[in-house]
């Protein structure tokens, strides 16, 4: 491989990139917009969920229960008239749960008797329904223990400590994940468009007519596009620090090595897609739509990969974003460093090698055909 020809090809790509305003916007403006939208809009914790309370007891216990519901950040208690049916309240869609406190509840608790309280939860959203159920159960148990007769103290007391994110800052989970999704979508899309445009303009035929080898063409394009991708990664990480305060939690070297590997994987994938397609539209559909869906859904960005069906869990091992998202969250949240993510970096390097081989074979086939 002639390094001079590789550098000339890299310089050519950078010059063409600088002259094309739409491509510059695709590389920087859209990723920044996506980071801001996802960083502010996506929230996994439930907040201010309305819960209807039909209070037949009208006691200190029921008032204490309602006040503790209101004091939480997750639920908001709405005291309904006694003639309102809890099922009708749920059917109306105005509340996500309904609690019915029967008359005599506090007297039953004080006498040491069972005091059943009805709780109806809308399970249309199963994840949030389980969270609402747990909060209601814990609140009722805590308040009920206050009004029940004193009993022997427990022999075992659990003391909890929250590690890695003691402030419960959801941005520390969302924003590093958005880094991985952005670097999975835009470098691939940019590389595919660059390759297809060369085919449409005929410049790739001129490259084949010269002494430029397929490996040198791929290396030159990849070097330029990886450099653009690194600038893109730096831009979004600086914004993440400035807006949400996302900073390194430990050793940053795995991220510094994993980011070029991730971008290289996505650029090679884009070159492979661009070599296999003949129009910009088809390249955008393949590299943009399909790749973005796979990177978004199978990377563990929102939901753990372990909860997926086995076939999707197996397929996700070939998704670079799945491995980089672990590197990113470790660098900005956990801070475990090399012991926790070395296998992810090794997998990214393996995927990059396979994609480089595939792109080289495809380019060789095109060169021989022309």
Verbal overview:
This protein has 370 residues and is mainly alpha-helical. It folds into 2 domains: 3-43 and 169-369, no CATH class; 49-147, abc type-2 transporter like fold. The protein contains 14 helices and 4 strands. The protein has helices at residues 3-19, 21-41, 60-71, 86-92, 105-110, 126-147, 171-201, 203-209, 214-244, 253-276, 280-297, 310-315, 320-334, 338-369; strands at 49-55, 75-79, 97-101, 118-121. It has a 4-stranded mixed sheet, sandwiched between helices. Helix 7 (171-201) runs antiparallel to helix 9, helix 9 (214-244) crosses helix 10 (253-276) and helix 10 (253-276) packs antiparallel against helix 11.
For the sheet with most strands, the description reads:
4 strands, mixed
What Rg do the Cα atoms give?
28 Å
Query: How many H/I helical runs?
Result: 14
The structural domain count equals: 2
Tell me the fraction of residues in β-strands, as a range.
5-15%
Instruction: Tell me the overall shape.
Output: elongated
Structural class by sheet pairing and helices: mainly alpha
Number of strands: 4
Mean pLDDT: 88
The N- to C-terminal Cα distance equals 21 Å
Query: Portion of residues in helices?
Result: 55-70%
Low-confidence segments: none
| Spatial sequence of strands, sheet with the most strands | 2-1-3-4
Order of helices and strands: HHEHEHEHEHHHHHHHHH
């Amino acid at each position: 491989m002639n390094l001079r020809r590789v550098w000339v090809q890299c310089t050519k790509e950078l010059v063409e990139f600088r002259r094309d305003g739409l491509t510059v916007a695709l590389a920087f403006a859209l990723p920044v917009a996506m980071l801001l939208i996802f960083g502010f809009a996506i929230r996994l914790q439930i907040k201010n969920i309305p819960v209807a309370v039909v209070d037949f007891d009208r006691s200190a216990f029921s008032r204490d229960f309602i006040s503790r519901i209101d004091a939480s950040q997750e639920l908001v208690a709405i005291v309904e008239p006694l003639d309102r049916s809890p099922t009708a309240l749920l059917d109306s869609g105005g509340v996500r749960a309904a609690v019915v406190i029967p008359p005599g509840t506090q007297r039953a608790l004080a006498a040491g008797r069972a005091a059943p309280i009805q709780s109806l939860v809308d399970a249309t959203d199963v994840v949030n329904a389980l969270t609402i159920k747990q909060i209601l159960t814990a609140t009722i148990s805590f308040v009920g223990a206050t009004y029940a007769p004193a009993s022997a103290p427990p022999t075992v007391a659990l003391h909890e400590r929250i590690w890695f994110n003691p402030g419960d800052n959801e941005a520390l989970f969302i924003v590093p994940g958005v880094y991985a999704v952005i670097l999975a979508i835009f470098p691939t899309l940019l590389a595919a468009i660059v390759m297809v445009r060369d085919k449409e303009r005929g410049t790739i035929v001129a490259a084949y007519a010269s002494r430029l080898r397929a490996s040198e063409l791929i290396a030159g394009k990849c070097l330029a596009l990886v450099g653009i991708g690194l600038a893109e990664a730096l831009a979004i990480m600086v914004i993440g620090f400035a807006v949400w305060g996302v900073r390194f939690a430990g050793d940053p070297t795995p991220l510094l090595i994993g980011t070029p590997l991730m971008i290289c994987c996505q650029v090679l994938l884009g070159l492979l897609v661009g070599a296999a397609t003949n129009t910009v539209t088809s390249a955008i559909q393949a590299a943009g739509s399909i790749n973005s869906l796979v990177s978004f859904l199978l990377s563990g960005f929102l939901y753990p990969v372990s909860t997926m069906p086995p076939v999707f869990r197996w397929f996700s091992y070939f998704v670079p974003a799945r491995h980089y998202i672990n590197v990113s969250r470790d660098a900005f949240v956990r801070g475990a460093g090399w012991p926790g993510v070395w296998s992810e970096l090794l997998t990214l390097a393996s995927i990059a090698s396979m994609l480089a081989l595939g792109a080289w074979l495809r380019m060789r086939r095109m060169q021989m055909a022309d």
